[in-house]
Amino acid sequence: MSNRILLVEDDVALGQQVIDSLREAGFEPHWVQDGDDARSLRPDDYRLIVLDLMLPGTYGMDLLKRYRAKSEVPVLILSARDDTADKIRGLQLGADDYVTKPFFPEELLARIQACLRRPNLSGNERLVVGAIVIDLERREVTASGNALSLTPVELEILTALARRKGAAVTRDALVEAALDPAQDSSRRTLDVHISRLRTKLGEDAKQLETVWGIGYRLSEGS
Question: What is the pTM of this model?
Answer without folding.
Answer: 0.61
